[in-house]
Amino acid sequence: MVEHAELAREWAAFASEAQQLQKLLAQRTVNLQRASNVLHWMVRKDQPVGQVLALVADLAAAGASAATADAQDDTSGHVERTAADLSSMAGRSRPITAADQAVSTSKQLRKPIIAGARARLDGSLCEVRELLVRFLGVRSALRLSSTPADLETPDELFRAIDRLPANGAAVSVGDAALQQLSQWLRAAAPAAGGASVEEVIRVELAPLYEIPRDENGWPTRSPTLAETGELLRSRDLPTVVRGYVGTGNIAAARGFIATADRPDQALDDEVLRGSREAQTRHEQALDAVDRIAARLRAVYEDEAAHDLTRRAVPLRAARAARLDLTIEPLRLLAQQGSVRLSEFREGLRKRVLECPCGEAGRSRIVQLIDSEDEILAVEFLTMAEAGLPLPEVQEQHGGDFSAFFPDKVNVAMTAAHSRADAVAAVRAAGGATADPSNRNLAFGLEAWRQLKRYKRAVPGGRFRECVADVLRMLGLVPKDQYWLQELSKTHRSGYATFKVKATPVDRSYVPSLGTQAHGNYDLTLVWDSVTSARLLDFVDESRRTEANVILYFNTLEPEQRLSLRRLTSPDGGKGFSPVVIDEPVIGWLSTLAEPGWRLTQRVTLPFTTINPYTPFAGGEVPEEVFVGRAQERQAIESPTGSMFVYGGRQLGKSALLRGVERLFSTTSRRNRRARGSCPAAGWPFTSTSRPPPSARRKSLPRCGPCSRSASGTSACCRPGQGAGPDPTR
């Protein structure tokens, strides 16, 4: 009976669901205005798609009887036929083509709607199909009910009891039994002093930390058979406390500690550490949702991204003692977003199979899809569908790193085990037969040996000079004055930490070790032989957000180097990535022709988890990750080149313009630059759509790089002058 009642409620819910879907599709915008017009036309109530949605809403509003009654008209058959038509690509193409014929001009109809715009139209009809399939499934389940009475709610018993007289005379044994049953059901609630059954169950299930709890601490589900067996075997206090700490329910863990006969200080410390780790997991889960939402927006899945962001809003602020209420829901949101991205990638794969490009082009696009680079995959696929060649890419190989690891590290390890000079062994393996010819490399090599031998007691008080020479060998040039400040809190402890002011001699591969460091680095010198985990512990927690460089006067084994990478991971690691310089690195650097900060990073960054592509605001991309785009930049700077930059989302339009702005403003003092958007005209400079007529009539200030008028009708914005392909064409 309960199952039939659920079916009736599901049937009634289709009324509002169909109306909401029709309203949603009528307001949905696609990245091509023509496609938006087609979609809005299809869901009109006088069109087949809009008619079937209205029909579903009417049938659901009529109640469950509409599903079981024999319809005289062909309403149910119409829903079935529409669902069948929308189940195939050809069936979905027919309403799209009909709507396109109705709303588009003859000139527009010469070119079909393709790429992302066509995919959005097809996806919208798939949403309608899924609603119809579920609707028909519930209708079939209702029709299988044995009698109409099965659809009644289980409240009939209680309504019948309410109609019985409270103190009627019992004429027969049946009347007496019925009277006792009614009195039992009408009995008053238990005494207020006794605990309710729910409260008893809550207390008994408390050791099962696997069961999620709501805001009031009540279990949200019943225990499984395995969990019941675990409950019968009983659990000790540390197991329960650690379990709740692992889920993020710090309040429950502290509650168990408070009820213990002998409180354990060690458990209090675990709860404190677990609270910090839970906060980190909450932030990581929130970051995962934000990243997936950004990826969805980049591929024009605005509704999914907005829904994801909206549902994450109440989960951003978490109670410090109940982080379990936000961590798992955020993970579920991230999984749902990942599923939507996976469906989008599957759609791209289908488009690749139909793409007229060659096998090599298909392979490149499929590789981008497999690597989850949806943005570039859409860009390449759009170009291929338009018959344009894909950009050529020059493959880059990590020759320096492959020559260094693991061969040079193994050479150093062999020398260290035999108590020989590891640096000299690496130099010999690299073919060096004499001291470095470069002055900075020669001084740095000697300074390294001095620091290793004498530590801070370098003869002649040359400790600071030796540190400076080693930094120059790494590619960092110390400032002239006040460049070294000690941060160590203890002495004679086998390590020392300093704050260093230095400038890279070249550039950095990652912003955190270059422009974002602002010339400030934390330098930690470690003389004791330690593990990779202990090596990271030398960096104080309050300094782990700085650019950290560790000079380790020993050799890390290959396995320790790989462990170092795992330890620096944000997921389960220390959460920060220092650059570790040890004997093999120094030996390899001394065989080069000249020092360089990027040369040092070539053999050290692979053992970190530094992400150079962190979110940046409004195209403010650090110069380290602004690479390539030389042709586009020259086109913008040229007086006869491009006037506007257009293209898909997250392809670097703003970064390109800001990069040109920075370079242009520094070439000459007479240059003038201007940057801004056109909200009054309704068209920003980096829009992916055509300028509206109002923007064409308004004259804008003269642009800096090209010194031309930015009016929309000038020759400088004629078709074909853009700096990139338009994916909507």
Question: What this model shows, in words?
Answer:
Among the domains are: 2-151, no CATH class; 399-607, no CATH class; 619-729, no CATH class. Strand 2 (484-486) and strand 3 form a beta hairpin. Strands 1, 2, 3, 4, 5 and 6 form a six-stranded mixed beta sheet that branches. Helices cover 52% and strands 4% of the residues. The two termini are 56 Å apart. The chain is mostly helical. Helix 3 (48-61) crosses helix 5 (75-85) and helix 14 (265-298) packs antiparallel against helix 15 (302-316). The protein contains 30 helices and six strands.
The CA-CA distance between the termini, in Å, is 56 Å
| CA-atom Rg in angstroms | 35 Å
Shape: flat
- Count of extended strands: 6
Supply database-style keywords.
729 residues; 6 strands; 30 helices; mainly alpha; flat
Helix and strand layout, with pairings?
Layout lengths: L1 H26 L5 H10 L5 H14 L3 H4 L6 H11 L3 H15 L11 H29 L12 H8 L9 H13 L11 H8 L20 H9 L3 H11 L2 H9 L6 H34 L3 H15 L7 H31 L4 H12 L3 H12 L13 H6 L2 H11 L4 H8 L9 H16 L8 H12 L1 E3 L5 E3 L8 E10 L15 E7 L5 H6 L10 E5 L5 H10 L11 E3 L1 H7 L7 H6 L27 H8 L15 H13 L27 H5 L32
Parallel strand pairs: 4-5, 5-6
Antiparallel strand pairs: 1-3, 2-3, 3-4
Compact overview of the structure:
The chain is mainly alpha-helical and 729 residues long. Helix content is 52%, strand content 4%.
